[in-house]
Amino acid sequence: MRITNILIADDEKDIRDLIKISLEENGYTVLTAQNGKEAWEIFTAQEVHLAILDVMMPVMDGFNLLRKMREQSTIPVIFLTARADEMDKVLGLGLGADDYLVKPFSIAELVARVGAQLRRNHEYLSGKEKSGVCISYGNLSIDKEKCCAFKNGEPLELGAKEYKLLLYFIEHPEKVFTKRQLYQAVWGEDYYYDDNTVMVHISRIRNRIEDDPQKPEYLKTIRGIGYKLHYTGEKQ
Hints:
Layout: E1 5-9, H1 13-25, E2 29-33, H2 36-45, E3 50-54, H3 62-70, E4 77-81, H4 86-95, E5 99-102, H5 107-131, E6 134-137, E7 140-143, E8 148-151, E9 154-155, H6 160-171, E10 177-178, H7 179-187, H8 195-209, E11 219-222, E12 226-229
Parallel strand pairs: 1-2, 1-3, 3-4, 4-5
Antiparallel strand pairs: 6-7, 7-8, 8-9, 10-12, 11-12
Helix pairs in contact: 1-5, 2-3, 6-7, 6-8, 7-8
C-alpha cells in the first residue's frame, strides 16, 4: 500500500490535532509543524505529497514558506487562513497554492479537498509518465529529447531560455506563476532577478506561438501577479 505523507503547518495546536486525527482516520500519514521554519525542516528532510499551511504563523509565515517550497516542488498545497481578504487569496494562489480554505472550515470538506488534490496530482504525474519525452498542450507540442517545440506540427524558432520557459508552462498548465518564480525556474538564480528579462522572453514566445500576440490564446497575463498557460482556442 502506497504511503501518502501530508504536512500540516499551523500554530494552533487544536487545529493541528483535529486535522491530524481526521486525515489519519482516512489512511494518510501526517507530519505536523507549529511554524513555517519547522515545516520547512520537515519538508526538506522527508518526502511530502501534500501540504496544508496556515497563512499567519510565527518565525516564517505560510506565504514565505510556499515561496521556498515552490523552488523545489510542485506538490499540492492547501492554504488555511483566518483572513477572508480576497487579495490574500489572490496572492496565495499566485504564489502556487492549489486551494484555499477560510477558518472556521468544515473538516469533512478539508479531507475531501485533500483527496481531490492528490487524485488530480496523481493523474497529472501519470499523464507525464505516459507521454514520455513528448508533451503537448492545445496545438503546441515539445519533444524534450530533441529540445524542439512545435505548433500544429510546424517547428518553432525559440532561443534556449524561451524553450525552457515554454516547456515549464506546458509542464504546469493552468497554473499562475509570478515573474520571480519563472526566473528562478528557468534562470536558476534569484540574486540577479530582473522582471524585465522575463517580460522580454514572454513577448518573444508570444510572437512565435500566438496568431495575434496582442490577443494571446495561450500565454495569459494575470494582472498584478504574473502569467499562466491557458488555451482558449480550438485544436487544429
